[in-house]
Amino acid sequence: MGRLVVVSNRVADPRKTAAGGLAVALGEVLNDSGGLWFGWSGKLVEEPVGTETQMHVHHAGPVTLATVDLTREDYDAYYVGYSNGVLWPVFHYRLDLADFDAGYIEGYRRVNQMFARRLLAMLQPDDVIWVQDYHLIPLAAELRSLGCTQRIGYFLHIPLPPPLILAAIPGHDWLMKGLCAYDLVGFQSNADLDHFCRYIQDEAHAQPAGEGRWRVFNRFIHAAAFPIGIDVGEFRALTAAPEAQEMYQRMSREYSRRKLLVGVDRLDYSKGLPQRMRAFRELLARYPETRQSATLIQIASPSREDVSAYTDILHELESLCGSINGNYGELDWMPVRYMHRTVARARLPGLYRASRVALVTPLRDGMNLVCKEFIAAQNPEDPGVLVLSRFAGAAEQLKEALLVNPYDSEGTAAAIHLALQMPLEERRERHKALLATIRRTDVHWWCDSFLDLLGQAEAEESGTPWL
Ligand code: ADP
Fold it and tell me: Which candidate in 268, 365, 417, 442 is catalytic?
């Protein structure tokens, strides 16, 4: 395969330790091929729409990082408006939170066109392009309309809802036709893949053309599920490092008489935080012995505070935590410790390891990586228990977790109670199976299996035109 070109909304320098598993894994394959990573610089300029914004080119070893600035108006429409005000809520099944302002879709198209034009000028004939996530769905169609014939793959990191939910988006046919301009489209779960296949059959008369292969809009595409993982080796090394160890010791000392439950999330309405608090309240109400023996630490990092649905969820969560502590707290015990901030990545594994139970209960999540990090950070001799929403993409893989319906607070409370009481032998068995799964499907497996299939698509049908 030729040079790899990764395109994503934001570009991370893979050499920085804060970059996380995905950036590091992509960095490795980019390194191997002397690749290019293209995206938005994160900078805004106060210029009129249509201004030729600045391009920044950096070299990180053999990898070229190329980024462009956005005008504020483009950012408001493409990023805040369409990506996070339409696609994020609808793809997470929240039609009620979507704001279908016509100006947003125009801005989204405009930025994708601009990205296509500026990327095209940097492409080489044998490049293989890999586009990431919901900000850039129409990028391949825009590149194709400018004459790009290179192989292009796409991975959607968030869920894809069923066809009838997609159909509520004004312009959904344009959006979904855009996905069909790729050679390979990857999803997090089989459920998402199934929704895509149903959509293209129902709405675009796609015909099956072999395993995972479709004929649609007069060309062939591949579609498959590639559940993303973490870098398990790196995360276990982080767990053994002094900062995480120090955190572990401190938390274990502080909570030596109590079992710790932990939740770590971005503060997002898809994460089911109020529902989680209601389940915890139910636990305290139904199982009085937990009142003296369990503490929930909930860390929720600030996110997208320029979107109003996010400030609403913040207030709801604060009020629930306050009322639980007010109703159940004692002079020497607070049931919930809620912090609206980010924990340093180097310390996070220590917090996970000191916790008996992780509550990962999103209402909908493409994959969810927190649950995989929790598994990786455990001591296999005395591991904690994962309580996982069946609506996280990870639930398709992590069958040995305690799977819950986060809308059912009584059922979730019963599962948390079970987790708190689970005997050591059962904890070990479940953890062993979970660890084997996340090792087998780590982020390097994800990257390699996607690029392998994209390579195969190339061998079969190079240069299928886009009409
Ligand atoms: P999402 O991408 O929707 O935020 P994921 O679970 O897939 O959800 O990934 C979240 C990542 O961000 C994980 O690596 C997790 O460790 C990190 N993270 C989330 N919340 C926090 C927090 N409050 N403090 C530190 N890291 C966090």
Answer: 365
